């Protein structure tokens, strides 16, 4: 050992790179390693068996078809035909307005309020787009997909149903069209418009029944029907009777009322009464208050006051509520019979609490005219009292 150490120190003193000599000595003095290839150890060796491990809890969003379409998959959440491009191109309000309204109240209650506003404005496309956007979004409170309830689904279904539906014209539009056709004698088109008018507003509870009155709204059609006398009235009635047997049948009480009043205007009580009876017997319909008013007017014009009073009593026994026109026609019947006192009695009954109608200024003027012709000064004073009660300025002229 001493000889080896002395030889090593001698070599170090006489060599310029002594560390290389030490490295060679270390390599040559080491045991040779085996060069045979060996397989890497199995990575599962020593790991716990997954079959025996406790399973993970189920995914809370399992079963939601829209879970993969939220923020975890933005490409699926916003396809090329999705919300934003359609909103920007097809809506007059734009995406910013709609999304601003949505994000103000992002919960279900706020969405219902927004839907109520859109329904009032008939913005059906906006409702559909907003619903689609809401169900694709996550709840801000829980982070889970939004789940619409039954009310929201009903709003969505209604929006799909009303999409593309046209708004019905107003009653004034139909009446203007009826006036136009009646003024130029196009009765077929006028009655066709009346049929459309009845289909749109005939069963509506919010529409005033005076819209179908032959004395006011449909009076131009009445004038057109009796323009050439009974020949035009008979032609209209025959066509209405033929249409009642068509497929589909067309039956209209309002149209028959125009014929009855047209017969009254030409002083033909027989045709008026036959048309009134045909409403129930041939057309299988029920006369309304306008039908009775037209028949009452026909009797009153021929000074058949007793028959007119019988019609009025028949209306009361049927439980049909008279309107202001009923009382006005009955007043005219008494005035035609030169009986102003009976006319004033009808007016007193008209203004009672049960009826609650107000006589028109024209009605009071006609009563006062009859009082002047019959020299009935007591009735005239009563007429003036009624005029003051209803703030009518009658003037000094009786004619």
Number of structural domains: 3
Q: Quickly name the level 1 CATH class of the largest domain.
A: Mainly Alpha
Q: Which oligomerization state do the chains in this entry correspond to?
A: single chain
Point out poorly predicted stretches: 69-93
Shape label:
elongated
**Structural class by helix and strand composition:** mainly alpha
| CATH level-two architecture of the largest domain | Alpha Horseshoe
The tally of strands reads 0
Topology-level CATH name of the largest domain:
Serine Threonine Protein Phosphatase 5, Tetratricopeptide repeat
Number of helices: 20
Strand percentage: under 5%
Overall average pLDDT: 77
Helicity range of the residues?
55-70%
Please state the CA-atom Rg, rounded to the nearest Å: 47 Å
Largest sheet, in brief, is: none
Distance between the termini: 161 Å
Order of secondary-structure elements: HHHHHHHHHHHHHHHHHHHH
How are the secondary structure elements laid out?
Layout: H1 2-14, H2 18-28, H3 74-77, H4 83-90, H5 94-104, H6 108-121, H7 124-135, H8 150-162, H9 171-183, H10 187-201, H11 219-225, H12 230-243, H13 253-265, H14 269-281, H15 289-301, H16 305-318, H17 324-336, H18 340-350, H19 361-373, H20 377-389
